[in-house]
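Backbone-to-sequence.
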C-alpha cells in the first residue's frame, strides 16, 4: 500500500493530485483550534482557582483577615488545598457519568455551575467554613474540566494537531494561575473574586456555539448530527466528512461493548484496555509523585533560603511565568518532538533538578557553607518548572485520552482522574508531615526517585502516539504491530491505479 506521502516522493504526482491530498489532513484546522480554545476557557477558570491560595492565604492569616475575625491557622490553610482535592474526588465520577449519559458538550456546560457557586460563596463568605465549601466546589469544577476538556478535544481533533490541542489544557491552567498571582497582589479579596466570577460566564456563553463530539454522536446513532458536527470541524470538506463518518461508524460496530453498558470490569477485559489503564495510571501517578504541588507550595521558601530579596508574591509570579513559558514550548513541540520523547526529557530533567535541590538542602541543613552557591536552588527550581511544563505537565493528559477506545474512554478517564486526585490529596496533605520526619531534602530525594522511576516506566511501556489515529494506537496495545499504522496516513493506492485521489478517513 502506498501512502500519500510516499506517493509524492515516488511517483511525483501533478499539482492537482497534491491539492487533493492536502485538505484531508489540514481541513478544518482553524475550526478545531477555535473549539479547543473555547472549551479550554474552563481550564483557564480552574487555573484562577488553583492559583487563588497563593496570594489569598497570607491575607487570611493576617491579623485583619478579610473573612472571619481570627487569622486562619496553618492547618486551616492546608485544608484550602485539601478541600479542592476532596471536591475533585467527587467531581470526577460525576462528570464522567454526565459525559457518557448526556454528552461531552452538556458536561462541558455543567462545569461552569460549580465554578459559579465557588465564587459566589467566596464573595459572600462570613467565616472560614464558607471558604472550605467554596474550595470544595472549585475541586468539583476542576475535576470536570480536567476530565471533559481532553475527552472533547481528543474526539474533535485531527491526528496531525491532536497533541498540540491536547497540550492547551495545562497551558490554559497555567495562564489562569499566573493571572491570579498578578491580580491577587493588586486587588482586594472580594474584588478579585468578583472579577474571577466573570470567566465562567464568558466560557459558558462561548461554548454554547461549539459542536458536540462527532464520536459521541455516532455512538448514540445520531448520524445526521454527527455529520453536521464533522462538517463544521473539517471546514466543510464533504468528501472528508463522509469518509470519516463511515470510519467512525465501522469502529462503533466493531466494538463488542459499543451497545452494552460499560462497567468497571470492562477496563480489564482486553489486552488493550489493561495496557491503557497501566499507561494512564503510570503517567498520571508519576506526574503527582514528582511533587509538583508540594514544590510549587514550597517555592517561596526556596527563594528565601537562597538569600533572594524577592518577596513571596514576586517569587510566585516569576514561577508562574516560567510555567506558562514551559507550557508554550510544550504546545509548540508536541507534534514535532512527540509525546514519549517529551516525557523522557521532562523526567530526566526533573530528576536532576530534584536531586540537586536535595543535595543543596542536605548540605545547608548540616551546617555546610553554601552561600557561594545560593543561586543553585533558584536555578534548579526554575529549570524544574520549565521541564515539568514541557512534558510531565500536559503530556500525561494527552496520552491518557489516546490509549482508550471511544466507547470506554469516558469511564477509563474517570477512573484515571480519581487516581490522580487521590494522589494529589495525599501528597499535598502529608508533605509537611513527611518533611518533618525526613527533612525537606529527604522529600526532594523521594520525589526525584519517583520521577526517575517514571522515566523507566515510560521507556518500557509508553508507545509514541504522535500523529497516529486512536485505532492504530489500540492495534499496537493489542500487540498487532503490523496494523498499527493502518489509519496513520492517507492512502492513495487507489489513485495510482485509477488516476483519482482517494483518501482514507482520519480518526478523531
Amino acid at each position: 500500500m502506498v501512502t500519500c506521502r510516499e506517493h509524492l516522493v515516488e511517483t511525483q504526482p501533478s499539482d492537482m493530485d497534491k491539492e487533493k491530498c492536502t485538505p484531508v489532513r489540514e481541513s478544518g484546522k482553524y475550526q478545531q483550534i477555535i473549539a479547543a480554545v473555547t472549551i479550554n476557557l474552563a481550564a483557564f477558570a480552574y487555573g484562577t482557582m488553583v492559583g487563588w491560595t497563593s496570594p489569598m492565604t497570607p491575607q487570611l492569616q493576617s491579623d485583619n483577615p478579610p473573612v472571619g475575625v481570627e487569622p486562619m491557622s496553618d492547618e486551616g490553610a492546608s485544608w484550602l488545598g485539601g478541600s479542592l482535592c476532596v471536591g475533585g474526588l467527587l467531581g470526577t465520577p460525576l462528570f464522567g457519568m454526565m459525559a457518557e449519559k448526556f454528552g461531552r458538550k452538556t458536561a462541558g456546560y455543567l462545569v461552569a455551575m460549580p465554578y459559579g457557586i465557588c465564587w459566589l460563596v467566596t464573595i459572600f463568605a462570613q467565616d472560614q467554613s464558607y471558604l472550605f465549601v467554596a474550595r470544595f466546589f472549585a475541586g468539583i469544577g476542576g475535576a470536570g474540566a480536567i476530565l471533559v476538556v481532553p475527552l472533547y478535544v481528543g474526539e474533535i481533533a485531527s491526528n496531525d494537531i491532536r497533541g498540540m490541542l491536547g497540550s492547551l489544557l495545562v497551558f490554559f491552567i497555567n495562564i489562569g494561575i499566573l493571572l491570579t498571582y498578578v491580580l491577587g497582589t493588586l486587588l482586594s479579596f472580594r474584588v478579585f473574586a468578583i472579577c474571577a466570577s466573570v470567566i465562567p460566564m464568558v466560557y459558558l456563553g462561548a461554548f454554547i456555539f461549539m459542536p458536540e463530539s462527532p464520536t459521541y454522536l455516532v455512538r448514540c446513532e445520531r448520524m445526521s448530527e454527527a455529520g453536521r458536527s464533522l462538517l463544521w470541524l473539517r471546514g466543510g470538506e464533504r468528501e472528508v466528512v463522509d469518509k470519516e463518518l463511515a470510519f467512525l461508524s465501522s469502529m462503533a460496530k466493531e466494538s463488542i461493548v459499543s451497545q452494552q453498558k460499560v462497567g468497571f470490569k470492562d477496563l480489564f477485559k482486553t489486552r488493550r484496555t489493561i495496557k491503557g489503564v497501566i499507561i494512564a495510571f503510570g503517567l498520571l501517578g508519576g506526574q503527582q509523585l514528582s511533587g509538583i504541588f508540594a514544590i510549587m507550595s514550597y517555592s517561596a521558601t526556596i527563594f528565601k533560603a537562597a538569600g533572594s530579596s524577592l518577596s513571596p508574591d514576586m517569587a510566585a509570579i516569576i514561577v508562574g511565568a516560567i510555567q506558562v513559558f514551559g507550557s508554550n514550548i510544550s504546545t509548540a513541540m508536541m507534534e514535532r518532538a512527540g509525546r514519549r520523547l517529551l516525557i523522557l526529557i521532562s523526567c530526566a530533567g526533573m530528576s536532576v533538578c530534584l536531586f540537586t535541590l536535595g543535595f543543596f538542602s542536605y548540605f545547608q541543613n548540616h551546617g555546610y557553607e553554601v552561600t557561594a552557591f545560593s543561586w543553585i536552588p533558584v536555578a534548579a527550581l526554575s529549570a524544574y518548572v520549565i521541564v515539568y511544563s514541557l512534558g510531565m505537565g500536559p503530556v500525561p493528559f494527552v496520552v491518557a485520552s489516546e490509549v482508550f477506545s471511544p466507547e470506554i474512554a469516558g469511564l477509563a478517564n474517570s477512573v484515571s482522574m480519581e487516581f490522580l486526585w487521590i494522589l494529589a490529596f495525599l501528597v499535598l496533605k502529608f508533605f509537611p508531615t513527611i518533611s518533618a520526619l525526613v527533612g525537606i531534602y529527604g522529600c526532594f530525594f523521594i520525589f526525584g526517585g519517583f520521577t526517575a522511576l517514571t522515566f523507566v516506566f515510560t521507556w518500557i511501556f509508553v508507545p509514541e502516539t504522535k500523529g497516529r489515529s486512536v485505532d492504530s494506537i489500540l492495534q499496537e496495545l493489542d500487540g498487532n504491530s503490523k496494523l498499527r499504522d493502518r489509519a496513520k496516513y492517507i492512502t492513495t493506492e487507489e489513485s495510482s491505479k485509477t488516476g483519482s485521489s482517494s483518501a482514507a478517513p482520519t480518526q478523531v
